[in-house]
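Hello,

Our lab assistant flagged a job as stuck in the queue for most of the afternoon. It eventually completed. Since we weren't sure the result was trustworthy after the delay, we are filing this so someone can double-check. Below is the sequence as submitted and the structure that was eventually returned. Let us know if re-running is recommended.
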Amino acid sequence: MARDSYIFTSESVSEGHPDKVCDRISDAVLDAFLAQEPLARVACEVFATTDRVVVGGEVGLADQSNLVRMMEAVPDIVRECVKDIGYEQKGFHWNNLKISNYLHEQSAHIWQGVEKDGAGDQGIMFGYATDETPELMPAPILYSHAILKRLAEVRKSGKEPMLGPDAKSQLTVKYEHGKPVGVTSIVLSTQHLDDRMSSDDVRAIVEPYIREELPGGWIHDDTEWHVNPTGAFVIGGPDGDAGLTGRKIIVDTYGGAAPHGGGAFSGKDPTKVDRSAAYAARYLAKNVVAAGLAKKCTIQLSYAIGVAKPLSIYADTYGTGEVPEERIEQAVAKVMDLRPRGIREHLDLAKPIYARTAAYGHFGRHPDADGGFSWEKTDLVDELKSEV
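-- returned structure --
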């Protein structure tokens, strides 16, 4: 029997975290290519360290002359990302970066498999949803993201000019009878721009925003606070610690509350099922829970490179299901075409909508009018109810 009273911890990192800087650049490159051709092929990886950014990977456009022009635009894309995040410090300044671009044309062997509507690679992908929050997300990761997103807003608006771009949050949440009821510890480490500031000074800035983002009554007198517990945090970003695309896959998804297939998302176009099928799995799991078929649900999909049809569909409702898991598996296969092309078309993924996903989570966000976060819609509820 599953435990219903426990504590669970998840972490998030800000858009200025070294790995997230790289994710942002990778997805901005992807968006730039998709803006040129909806079926552009992109697998972009980024490495960042002191005053240097290295971009590499494979790209493909039908228009070869356009491909050359887009390659030349990459340094400007990098600088704009770093500038928007807010890095103008000694050791990592958007205007002083040395940028190396090693993007090259995609392998013809991969292209031929994708052109036949096959998956761009083999792999397993998981989606998850739970009714413990209105967003149908696990509470620890949802609110860890919310805290950092709020701090970024007040930093960029100029309201809190002493905060820097690099930050981490971590929440330990207490569950009773399967529902989150409070926070036993809060960890927040944030870069600050004045080396004379103490941990208490930083806490005085961030505590009101943390309290704003957490549900009422969750913070108690016995809640432990650890704000900048190591002391000064002035040197941040890739100058303080090197960054790499795809190293924050648990932050990107469910904070460890659900399985992860292992594939990263950022920098990959939607022919890559690492990304698109993970979005589809979240979409299906969220609709299963929204339909009242289970209180929480994991959906697993698996693929083989060059093969369109998923090899398997697996559902787990952790004993909370109103119908057998086999019926859910059959239903999700009927309400959505889970071939790569079917996913791209159903969720309208061939758009430049990805840079916004690079920080504060790919899931638990509100669908945008231009198609961003389309996998967060709950428009399959009626169809799923009908099928089961």
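-- support follow-up --
The delay was a queue issue, not a problem with the job. The result is valid. The two ends are 25 Å apart (CA to CA). The mean pLDDT is 95.
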